[in-house]
Amino acid sequence: MDVRPLPDVLQALRSAGGMSRVDVGRAVGRSGQAVRGWETGRTRPTPGSLRRLEAIFGLAPGRLSA
């Protein structure tokens, strides 16, 4: 199984969805800067943010935190 690091997955999902960092940030109640931190690996989304990201991108619950 190919397991990609969370920053790579988040960036790929955002790009595939045609969303900007600001778009994703607004959708989860965070800033575009927060999303940038997640995508660069400097910071990690909170469990609540991960759940919202999963919902936005149509992923099964727990998929991003697994």
Structural notes for this entry:
The protein has 66 residues and is an all-alpha fold. The protein has one domain (7-56): lambda repressor-like DNA-binding domains (434 Repressor (Amino-terminal Domain), Orthogonal Bundle). It contains four helices and no strands. It has helices at 6-16, 21-28, 32-40, 47-56. Helix 2 crosses helix 3 (32-40). The longest helix is centred in the first third of the chain and has 11 residues, at 6-16. The radius of gyration is 11 Å and the shape is globular.
Give the key terms.
434 Repressor (Amino-terminal Domain); globular; 66 residues; mainly alpha
Derived from helix and strand composition plus strand pairing, the structural class reads: mainly alpha
Name the beta content range. Answer: under 5%
**Amount of helix:** 55-70%
What's the pLDDT, averaged over the residues?
93
How far apart the termini lie comes to 13 Å
| DSSP strand count | 0
- The CATH level-2 architecture is identified as Orthogonal Bundle
Low-confidence stretches: none
Order of helices and strands: HHHH
Biggest pleated-sheet summary:
none
Q: Please give the CATH class.
A: Mainly Alpha
Determine Rg (CA atoms, Å).
11 Å
CATH topology: 434 Repressor (Amino-terminal Domain)
Classified in CATH, the superfamily is lambda repressor-like DNA-binding domains
Question: How many structural domains can be distinguished in the coordinates?
Answer: 1
Number of separate helices: 4
